[in-house]
Amino acid sequence: xxxxxxxxxxxxxxxxxxxxxxxxxxxxxxxxxxxxxxxxxxxxxxxxxxxxxxxxxxxxxxxxxxxxxxxxxxxxxxxxxxxxxxxxxxxxxxxxxxxxxxxxxxxxxxxxxxxxxxxxxxxxxxxxxxxxxxxxxxxxxxxxxxxxxxxxxxxxxxxxxxxxxxxxxxxxxxxxxxxxxxxxxxxxxxxxxxxxxxxxxxxxxxxxxxxxxxxxxxxxxxxxxxxxxxxxxxx
Length: 235
Known about the structure:
The chain is 39% helix and 9% strand. The protein has helices at residues 6-9, 21-36, 56-72, 88-91, 98-103, 130-141, 177-186, 197-205, 221-234, and strands spanning 44-45, 76-80, 147-150, 155-156, 191-195, 211-213. The strands form two sheets. A four-stranded parallel sheet has the order 3-2-5-6. It starts with 5 loop residues before the first helix and ends with a helix. The model is unreliable at 1-21 (pLDDT under 50).
């Protein structure tokens, strides 16, 4: 885990004052470098690590995503629990499946091979993630493009089974606090939303003000849609 003063260490200035994408590259690259260098126990997978060459595509995708979100200037951040093996674990971006990463979201100019995003050919049989599909259908329907993140940015899986998801332990969430705080400095959003109980617990512990909504997984689609409608009204 890293702890740093971003204003001092990278010559921080708010994204709203930056004049070009070139100026944005340095803080985003620093952020991704810190992700990549984080050492984890064996049942947490670091999909950004420099140890595995294939992770380069995921770092590339995250960098493009953050640069595009800087252009869009999001007012809302949705913070979920952790990457799933069918989504962020493969693509490097929360709530983005390989299918979405490949085909893109033309309405908002996000993702897609024509925009330079990469599909990592690790588990090519996995293309879609139910939660990612629900999230983007709902966001596009409500004209909302929030910044997406996880309180734990690394993939928790069952021992010996990387193609699995498990609920992260409270002790494991400590790996995510500094990254979330760094993003909140880089993106001065107005509303932070905890998506699910683990996110709620972490944000409460870290004393970060937030709204809460139901996670769309396991039958939570209807409540998630209602939660997005509430957030849209709050903007």
